[in-house]
């Protein structure tokens, strides 16, 4: 079976999952950037966002990884320098999402939480660089 | 050792008559000491009147944190198992028997599971109170064959300390 014929579909689902993942990370980043209190309303909102994160963003992230491994293998991209650099930013973005997820859990538990200002610019920077590297493949 | 059975009707008023008269028992390691504790604990085991996710009580905190540790424990087990399969079976088969398919399959699978495990560690550590040496231990164990299986004791200890209210 020639898996190369599935390459466009792998890529399409990879991009779709990446869009969902990026959207989830940015929206949680905005929430954590703004949240300053531990009021019951904030905790209820955090619980709803956390459910979305569990149901959509985290599976999308896992799908991005899995399909990314598949595309890299099928397309023989793993020796390309741009992909190695892109992987670094993907790992950073995933770590940012892990931090956001942990902070959301802490807010749901009712602990006082300081605004998490760093994750939003980090996430946006990573997403922009990943998109540029993936499309332009500069080196 | 079991304590004396307590009739549910004796400890709370239930709106659902079908639940009245149910006898429940407390385990030896139960943290329930008062009637209120007992009701909360009873609510935690899936009773129709259990507290909803919106009720952010102390027990909800325990539930959320224990569930997170349980996920990490499972992730740690899967990570350790795939590493052992890769290094213990697939790699020897490739180099000794000339059968590279095992490595070709298990390599990406392990890579994916490894990334997921590291992500779980970041998620768990960010939301809880962890010491630096515990975090380092969780991270290092991912690189050592059978290392992830030694996380089981650490994570079980953490779960017990959360359940008993030490954290």
Distance between the termini of chain B: 26 Å
Instruction: Please tell me the overall pLDDT of chain A.
Output: 87
Which chains have the largest interface? A-B, 26 and 23 residues
Low-confidence stretches of chain A: none
Structure description:
The complex is a heterodimer of chains A (139) and B (167). Chain A has helices at residues 7-34, 40-74, 81-108, 119-136. Chain A has four helices and no strands. The model of chain A has no long low-confidence stretch (mean pLDDT 87). Helices cover 62% and strands 2% of the residues of chain B. Chain B has helices at 8-11, 35-44, 58-97, 101-127, 132-141, 151-163; strands at residues 6-7, 23-24. In chain B, strands 1-2 form a two-stranded antiparallel ribbon. The longest helix of chain B has 40 residues, at 58-97. Chain B is elongated, with a radius of gyration of 22 Å. At the A-B interface, helix 2 and helix 3 of A face helix 3 and helix 4 of B.
Key descriptive features of the protein:
heterodimer, A: 139 residues, mainly alpha, 4 helices, 78% helix, 0% strand, B: 167 residues, 62% helix, disordered N terminus
Could you write a compact summary of the structure shown?
The complex is a heterodimer of chains A (139) and B (167). Chain A has 139 residues and is mostly helical. Chain A has helices spanning 7-34, 40-74, 81-108, 119-136.
Task: Break the fold down into its secondary structure elements and pairings.
The complex is a heterodimer of chains A (139) and B (167).
Chain A lengths: L6 H28 L5 H35 L6 H28 L10 H18 L3
Helix pairs in contact in A: 1-2, 1-3, 1-4, 2-3, 3-4
Chain B lengths: L5 E2 H4 L11 E2 L10 H10 L13 H40 L3 H27 L4 H10 L9 H13 L4
Antiparallel strand pairs in B: 1-2
């Amino acid at each position: 079976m020639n898996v190369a014929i599935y390459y466009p579909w792998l890529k399409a689902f990879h991009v779709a999952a990446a869009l969902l993942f990026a959207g989830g990370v940015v929206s949680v980043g905005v929430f954590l950037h703004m949240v300053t209190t531990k009021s019951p309303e904030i905790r209820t909102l955090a619980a709803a966002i956390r459910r979305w994160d569990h149901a959509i963003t985290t599976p999308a992230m896992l799908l991005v990884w899995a399909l990314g491994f598949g595309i890299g293998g099928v397309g023989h991209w793993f020796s390309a320098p741009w992909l190695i650099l892109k992987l670094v930013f993907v790992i950073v973005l995933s770590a940012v999402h892990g931090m956001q997820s942990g902070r959301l859990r802490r807010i749901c538990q009712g602990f006082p939480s300081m605004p998490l200002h760093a994750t939003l610019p980090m996430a946006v920077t990573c997403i922009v660089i990943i998109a540029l590297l993936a499309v332009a493949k500069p080196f | 050792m079991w304590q004396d059975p307590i009739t549910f009707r004796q400890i709370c008023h239930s709106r659902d008559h079908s639940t009245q008269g149910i006898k429940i028992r407390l385990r030896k390691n139960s943290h329930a000491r008062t009637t209120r504790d007992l009701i909360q604990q009873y609510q935690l085991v899936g009773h129709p009147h259990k507290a909803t996710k919106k009720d952010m009580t102390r027990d909800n905190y325990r539930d959320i944190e224990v569930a997170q540790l349980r996920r990490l424990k499972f992730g740690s087990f899967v990570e350790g198992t795939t590493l052992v399969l890769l290094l213990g079976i697939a790699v020897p088969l490739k180099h000794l028997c000339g059968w590279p398919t095992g490595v070709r399959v298990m390599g990406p699978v392990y890579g994916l599971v490894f990334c997921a495990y590291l992500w779980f560690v970041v998620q768990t550590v960010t939301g809880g109170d962890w010491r630096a040496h515990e975090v380092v231990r969780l991270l290092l164990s991912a690189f050592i064959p059978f290392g992830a299986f030694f996380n089981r004791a650490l994570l079980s200890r953490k779960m017990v300390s959360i359940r008993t209210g030490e954290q």
